[in-house]
Amino acid sequence: MGAEIHRLRDKVCESEKITINLGYVDLGHIDLLVREGFYSNRTDLIRTAIRNQLTHHAEAVKQTIVRQTLEIGLRHYSREDLEGVKAAGEMLSIKVVGLAIVADDVSPELACATIEAITVLGALQASKAVKTALADRIR
């Protein structure tokens, strides 16, 4: 299959927004560190804390990725890719850590005929119709 895997970099266009709830005391500590110049803003502290935890657990993450045969980064599935899978009489089990994209021109019928399961730790971008058609296969 001719699809490519790309390493993701920290760019605003390649990020996902999350929401967290913090206690007032924790939030006050964050604001104090920002005010004292340790971090430029709340987001800077939170991103740094997350990256530190990811670095701390990097070996465990690496072992899990190998054990579960996950692809890392950006994985794009084009209509041509899926038509090739269908022509070969095969089914895909998509496992991605990062961003999985099913092209906009992929029909729900083609997706159902070629995608057996989808596991994405990160984000899945696909048309609403494809996501609806594959809802029972997305984990």
UniProtKB/TrEMBL annotation:
<dbReference type="InterPro" id="IPR010985">
    <property type="entry name" value="Ribbon_hlx_hlx"/>
</dbReference>
<dbReference type="GO" id="GO:0006355">
    <property type="term" value="P:regulation of DNA-templated transcription"/>
</dbReference>
<dbReference type="InterPro" id="IPR013321">
    <property type="entry name" value="Arc_rbn_hlx_hlx"/>
</dbReference>
<protein>
    <submittedName>
        <fullName>Putative transcriptional regulator, CopG family</fullName>
    </submittedName>
</protein>
<dbReference type="Pfam" id="PF17723">
    <property type="entry name" value="RHH_8"/>
</dbReference>
<dbReference type="InterPro" id="IPR041088">
    <property type="entry name" value="RHH_8"/>
</dbReference>
